[in-house]
Amino acid sequence: MIEQQAIRLDMKQVTIEFPGVKALNNVDFTTESGTSHALIGANGAGKSTLMKVLSGAYNHYTGAIWIDGQAVHIRSPKDAKDLGIQIVYQEVDTALIPYLTVGENIMLDDTVNDMGKRQWMNWKRIHSNAKATLERMNVKVSTKKLVSELTLAEKQMILIARAITKECRFLILDEPTAPLSHAETEELFRIVRDLKKNNVGVIFISHRLPELFEICDDITVMRDGEFVIKKRIADTNQNDIVEYMLGKKLDDQFPKVPIEIGETNFEVKGLSDSDKLRNIDFYVRKGEIIGLAGLVGAGKTELCKALFGASRVVSGERVLQKRKLSIRNCNDAVKQGLALVPEERRKEGILVLESVVSNLTVANLSKFCAYSTFLQFGKEKKEAQQLIQDLGIKTPNEQAKVKNLSGGNQQKVAIGKWLTTEAEVYIFDEPTKGVDVGAKKDIFKLISQLAQQGKSIIYASCELSEIVGITDRVYVLYDGEIVKELQTSATNEEELLFYSTGGK
Amino acid sequence: MSTGQQRQVKAAKSFDFFDFLYKYGTIVTILILIAVFGTMSSSFLMPSNIINILRSISIVTIISIGITISLSVGGFDLSVGSVASLANAVVISMFVWHSQNSFIGIIIAVAVCLLAGLLNSFMIVKMKIPDMLMTLATMFIIQGVALTYTRGATVSQNMVMPDGTFAQGKISAFFSKIGQVPWIIIIMLVVVVVVHIFLNYTKHGRYMYVIGGNMEAAKLSGIPVNKYRVLAYVLSAGFAAVGGIMLASRVMTAEVNAGAPYLMDAVAAAYIGFSVAGAGRPNAFGTFVGAILIGILQNGLVMMSVPYYAMDIVKGTVLAFALALTYYKQK
């Protein structure tokens, strides 16, 4: 066998700006073919952006990319593919066409770009090429099967297969293991090892530290759009990496006031859904703010939705003030004293086409109705004006359409609508996402005020600094399970991140 | 700073022609049509002709109100024409074949149609079939049921029954009043006003618009979304039934597929109504204005001796314009 020459890939001084943010600032990244390289960083560190630059998704960056000592020009996905750089994104379904066969999906690039003047499909060639690729990967899936019939793991294999049908020197996998089970992850790692043997450089983006230590040779840590450090995996350990990811602490101001914590108010026992969540147990007391910490994909949003009846719960019970709740849908949840501020604000939290007043009263419209049927516009308006004042919502008047407000003010509306209900438990799912600093502070203040009134708050976020800043107690989620309960006063971001990334 | 202010003043002053057209185009069109037809035909503006127009649009308006309700929850109901046919067939057969009184006849016809509406809502809400496709299927199913029920023939008084005898049942004088002026117009106006109040001044109407605007957010606000969607399709079928019964009273027979031609006009009226006076969403008053526009157009064109068989070209074009206005605005 001929000794294969390792090819070097260098990204030098890469900088990219989007309106208002410098997403990458003079980042250097170096890897070689035939190795697997972990790229890690907290949310917003710029890992995905860097890999998008490498795969040609952006054309307005500055800096240089060198392959094998030669400067190369990558400004479009085609440039990157021609150089043998392939990427498999996390959302596999966006890249596959469900009602075409496995073979057609694998050979899609070929069909789209390399048909030239040919007009007729050569099915035999497509299926034999696809089959050869799958055999090379040792994946046993028929090329005649429809993609819509495959499991998530198989779909990912198909995308990897598509990436290596052509010459592939570097393969970027963006969070490939997030949706996979343990056995499926093992299968993926086998393929990664095979690829390495064939002199492919695999770049692995992941939040799960134990996995990276299992499969990778090198690791690069990024933070806030900057390169932090590159190390051999063998020369480091999980704790060090966590420290590099966090860096120095940010001194955020959280308006935390001491609140008297009462008796247990809301309790969840053995909650599971059909998909992600397994056996969730937790409780929250009156006046207490508990945090649900965890990285993207840990199941925080799924848990918030399951609690609120927005997704199906298979087993387990919810108890509010010693009364067992029966929640089959969100309507039941609202009636029984729960409130949810969902993650996807524009899609789920507010009614963008409606006015501020309609938004603020929608959760408890009966309160503003005569004979619980006829709307009382005056009463509605008065309450809305009061809420706008209390929450500091910046809007020309209460009839303005919510779509014209800024992100922070929209979020205040999404929270404000629950203040008209007599909710006991408030669930916040990433409430500060896309919210400016000033509004963030207002939102924290509002949450503290609710706790002061003896409400129970569940605060889910992947921003660990916020969890540390605002909560009294934290549950850490990892892969759909609560892995740790911590007192906030006795923990810090390092410890939270350690458990969030699967540390034990 | 000062340049920014200047720009704002300029923007406020500049007259947005498209926006004006969107909001008041329908009403302006109606006024232009009245002016044109009024000058071309002396009888167009006679009170008798105005009443004639109102009478001619009453059935379309009521069926269209049903579509408006289904549109308000973000749905669509193509089966209303067939439901109207079914109501027409059932109510006439109740009189002619079974010699029932008006009250029983109407109740049974409405009940049968509400069942059809429940079928629609079950398939759309529970089985999650896209509304347009499902109601396309039920449009044919219900049309087929109506045809099978009448054995593909017209039902009328003194008709020949399969055993060779003549049908004995009579249509009551009370029932025949429903389809005549002034009652047919009064019923239409009552329906428009009641549904307008329902959609704009009650909790339920607000919920329906909220659901139509963003179903996911409505669900997460605790609105019983499915209940309201079911209600919308049932109401849609209910108003189609009322339309069919009024049609029965108007013509006193049950022709084959008598309700089918109303579908197109009703859809057009509801979509024209979207933009009237800048509502930007399906609404009862707008639908009424839409029906008036179609009614005037049809009446005026007949007076100008445009043949009936060319009428669909005009109506289809009007619908296409209304859709263009609605969707171009939404981008």
UniProtKB/TrEMBL annotation, chain A:
CDD domains: ABC_Carb_Monos_I, ABC_Carb_Monos_II. The keyword Repeat applies. Residues 9-249, 259-504 form the ABC transporter domain. Gene3D superfamilies: P-loop containing nucleotide triphosphate hydrolases. Keywords: ATP-binding, Nucleotide-binding, Repeat, Transport. The keyword Repeat applies. GO terms for molecular function: ATP binding. InterPro entries: AAA+_ATPase, ABC_carbohydrate_import_ATPase, ABC_transporter-like_ATP-bd, ABC_transporter-like_CS, P-loop_NTPase. This is Sugar ABC transporter ATP-binding protein.
TrEMBL record, chain B:
It comes from Paenibacillus profundus. It is a multi-pass membrane protein. Its main location: membrane. It holds the Pfam family BPD_transp_2. It is found in: Cell membrane. The keyword Transmembrane helix applies. The chain crosses the membrane at residues 21-44, 50-71, 78-97, 103-125, 132-150, 181-199, 230-248, 260-277, 284-302, 308-328. This is ABC transporter permease. Keywords: Cell inner membrane, Cell membrane, Membrane, Transmembrane, Transmembrane helix, Transport. InterPro entries: ABC_BtuC-like, ABC_transp_permease.
